[in-house]
Design a protein that fits this description.
Layout (H helix, E strand, L loop, with lengths): L1 E8 L5 E8 L6 H7 L5 H11 L7 E9 L2 E11 L2 E9 L8 H15 L4 E5 L5 H8 L3 E4 L2 E5 L5 H6 L5 E5 L5 H8 L7 E3 L4 E2 L5 H12 L5 E7 L4 E9 L6 E8 L7 H7 L6 E7 L3 H9 L3 E12 L2 E11 L1
Parallel strand pairs: 5-6, 14-15
Antiparallel strand pairs: 1-2, 2-3, 3-4, 4-5, 6-8, 7-8, 9-12, 10-11, 12-13, 13-14, 15-17, 16-17
Bound molecules: coenzyme A.
The site of coenzyme A (COA) has 15 residues, from strand 5, helix 3 and helix 4.
Length: 324
């Protein structure tokens, strides 16, 4: 579906039409796919799925700038319950520096707020030209080029969203991607959070998530589950992947919002890992998490000395295993 949002006269005198495409969509799909054809295959797999209405409940919107009916610029948002990731910001090279990105983003941000959106995150080069475009729209750096925008001041939304509440385990699905990305934008109780996703401290998980879902779509042996709170928040996530070094050994990771650490066992028991040996690497300072792993049958089998560089400080990593 295409919805016209606005028209604007550019510096050049040309008329820019600004509209938003939601899935499923046929008329604008070839133009969007062509505009974003420089993206890698895993990103294009999501774009295709979204345009064909196969991206489950992950709300995917393509905000387009069009000149004479032809898409020349794009900004994509993927959202669930007002929590989103903004990406695929692109203006055709021959159309740049005419104010198109700025015009499309003004309408996109306005639309996000009007729809009751809460928080957006994105990744870009730190202090690059797009970094300053996003900065102008209220995004602020969380870590280098990983940026966040919130409608409400400070972390008012996250405080409500992640308030302690009953939560249940569900299989991970595409719709959870922006919600998982939000937990990763906040510091957790531990520093080492997911080895498979190379996630320590706070991190932009956009690439890790798209890779994970592309692998799931391709039928690779990977899986996961999330802890869904009553507010709709994904308050925790656990995954399993094949260990890169050993056959029939599965790498298990889990992380939660700090208010939901105690529910780590629910996540670990919610994973449907194939038979074999399960290995988990835990930050040696995460004693509560380690005790929760032990309560689920994980046994500490070794220590990797000074493997983790937490803000420059070397730390030990515990290796936990269980056989299932
Ligand atoms: C970044 C990008 C989307 C900007 O698109 P655009 O339509 O040319 O942007 P605008 O014309 O709206 O620029 C708005 C302002 O941003 C700044 N800006 C944009 N491109 C810039 C550049 N290459 N160098 C310095 N400043 C730049 C300028 O201040 C500009 O205003 P001005 O032209 O009046 O000085 C475009 O360059 C692009 O597609 N780049 C490749 C993909 C990319 O890097 N995407 C972002 C990934 S996070």
């Amino acid at each position: 579906m295409y919805e016209l949002l606005d028209r604007e006269t550019l510096k050049t005198g040309e008329t820019l039409e600004i509209g938003v495409v939601t899935s499923p969509e046929e008329e604008y799909a070839p133009g969007i796919e062509e505009l974003l054809s420089h993206k890698g295959e895993m990103w294009r797999a999501h774009i295709r799925a979204a345009l064909e209405g196969r991206a489950e409940r992950l709300e995917t919107r393509f905000y387009l700038g069009l000149i004479e009916g032809k898409p020349v610029a794009n900004i994509m948002t993927v959202e669930r319950l007002g929590v989103g990731i903004l990406g695929h910001v692109y203006t055709r090279p021959e159309q740049r520096r005419k104010g198109i990105c700025h015009a499309v983003m003004s309408r996109q941000m306005e639309h996000f707020r009007q729809r009751g959106g809460h928080v957006l995150t994105l990744g870009t080069g730190f202090e690059s030209p797009p970094y300053w475009i996003y900065h102008g729209f209220g995004f602020r750096s969380l870590k280098g080029g990983f940026m966040r925008y919130a409608v409400e001041p400070d972390h008012a939304f996250e405080e409500r969203w992640f308030a302690p509440a009953p939560a249940q385990v569900k299989p991970v699905a595409w719709e959870h991607a922006p919600l998982i990305a939000l937990i990763a934008s906040l510091p957790g109780a531990e520093y080492l959070r997911s080895v498979a996703w190379r996630y320590v401290g706070i991190e932009n998980l956009e690439r890790a998530l798209i890779e994970f879902f592309a692998r799931q779509l391709a039928g690779d042996p990977v899986g996961g589950c999330v802890l869904e709170s009553e507010t709709g928040a994904v308050a925790g996530c656990a995954t399993w992947h094949p260990h890169s070094l050993w056959s029939d050994v599965w790498l298990v990771d889990s992380f939660t919002h700090a208010n939901f650490t105690a529910q780590t066992p629910d996540l670990l028991e919610g994973l449907e890992v194939p038979p074999g040996k399960q290995i988990a690497y835990l930050d040696a300072q995460a004693r509560e998490k380690a005790a929760l792993y032990e309560s689920c049958g994980f046994v500490r089998e070794g220590t990797l000395t000074r493997f983790l560089r937490a803000d420059g400080e070397p730390r030990d990593v515990w290796v936990y295993g269980r056989e299932r």
